[in-house]
Amino acid sequence: MLSTSLWRLPSASAILYLFLTLFSFFISISVACFNGNCQVLEACTAATDCGSGLYCGNCPASGKNQPICTRGQATVPTSVINGLPFNKYTWLVTHNSFSIVDAPPLDGVQRLTFYNQEDTVTNQLRNGVRGLMLDMYDFENDIWLCHSFRGQCFNFTAFQPAINTLREVEAFLTENPTEIVTIIIEDYVHTPKGLTNLFTSAGLDKYWFPVSKMPKKGEDWPTVTDMVLQNHRLLVFTSVASKEAEEGIAYQWKYMLENEPGDPGVVPGSCPNRRESKPLRSRSSSLFLQNYFPTYPVEAEACKEHSAPLFNMISTCYRASGNILPNFLAVNFYMRSEGGGVFDALDKINGQTLCGCSTLASCQAGAPPGTCKSIPAPNTGSMSSTSGSFTGSVQFSKSSASRVHSPSLLVLWFFYLPLLAFLKTTINTHLIGF
Fold first, then answer.
1. Helices then strands (H, E): number in the chain?
2. 3-class secondary structure, 242
3. Is residue 115 within 8 Å of 99, Cβ to Cβ?
């Protein structure tokens, strides 16, 4: 404790000493974790401070400039509770998965379009994404991934041939023999058998889930265990109804309910169904895709969107659908958040549907529903899966990486320690009478 004689010092010196003492206390807190030991919501100064599945980021759009460790990976629900029907789970989906910041443009062409994601499709899959929304077009005598301009692909809106991305999916499924991936195609391909030939060329036909085995009247899907045993680990849906009969590709809205995408899907308190979809209260389809992204994506705003507004919209759509939680949650910039974001939302949904607990981390495999483990609240540890058959990698593209600005601790200590030593000497001189 400070000596009472300290208070006989000039008030400015006493106040300064107290300030520096408190400053020392806060500095010690700020460096309490480092070298991979920091957990969710803890302060950080570099990505290397944060634990597995986390990155160091902030959210200026919400007024939160202090960098903290932020989740960058999903907990794959089958790594906690396995063996249930596919439609009992909720999976993370990336909207326009191919539209990646820093994706190289065509030679000699300046790309003039918007972007929706920040890392490669391979990295998205490694981070727990299990659904890809891909826009496919006939372009340059091939099938390309592209944003449309009046329903057509142009060189200034094109990204790359679709087979490149599909080969990434094939490599992931081959390397991870227990994982299931869903591809949802916004389909502008008119070439006869174009999609069939494309998926065959990419080597994905061996994983194809056959349309004949998809439930037609809202029944449960096969269990994930059966799907893995049968190697039916790729679900593909098209937006063109005729291709189900022509190519054996499932027509999306025959099997899936969907709310309105874009700006209508983020209006607080409202959750209308997409025009092509059956009403959300319909029970004739057993899959529900919830879109949550604005029409025009803004990287810097995504962290704010993935906080309270996302959770509120999940509740809104839950009521609008007659108490059905989504099987697919589609977002832009999936890693952006104020700490837990989309990943926490998925854990809450899966916890409720798979085991009747408040979050997936509380579930106990083999235990009766509602038998929940106690976990710290709020969660301060990474909930990324480490028991699955893959390893994730939090990786932004170079220009879109979260920019966090913290003062250098080395600089702070360089000026602070000599000042504190000088002040203590001055104080001691006063106290002993010199």
1. 11, 12
2. coil
3. yes
Place of tokens 């320690």: 417
Strand duo 152-161 + 234-238: pairing:
unpaired
Pairing between strand 256-258 and 287-291? parallel
- In whole angstroms, how far apart are CA 289 and each of 46, 278, 400? 36, 12, 27
**90-136 residue pLDDT tens:** 999 999 999 999 898 888 889 999 999 999 999 999 999 999 999 99
**Amino acid at residue number 344:** D
> How many Cα atoms occupy the beta-carbon half-sphere of 388 within 13 Å?
26
Q: Which range, of 33-42, 295-304, 321-330, averages the lowest pLDDT?
A: 33-42
| pTM (2 d.p.) | 0.83
**Identity of the amino acid at 22:** L
- H helices of 137-181, where? 162-175
- Closest of 399, 407, 305, 293 to residue 61, by C-alpha: 305
- For residues 135 and 186, is the Cβ–Cβ distance under 8 A? yes
Tell the residue number behind the tokens 């999940």, with chain if given. Answer: 314
24: helix, strand or coil: helix
More confident residue, 102 or 329: 329
Give me the pLDDT at residue 393, please: 56
Do 10 and 24 contact (CB within 8 A), yes or no? no
Look at the block and give the residue holding tokens 């000497």: 425
Residue 431 CB neighbour total at 10 angstroms: 13
Which residues partner with 330 through β-bridges? 93, 291
How far is the C-alpha of 434 from the C-alpha of 429, rounded, in Å?
A: 5
| Token reading at 311 | 């959770």
Pairwise CA distance, residues 188 & 137, whole Å: 5
CA angle 348, 303, 405 (to 5 degrees): 130
Please give the distance of CA 288 from its chain centroid, rounded to a whole number.
18
Terminal C-alpha separation, the chain: 22
- What whole-number distance in Å separates Cα of residue 199 and Cα of residue 169? 10
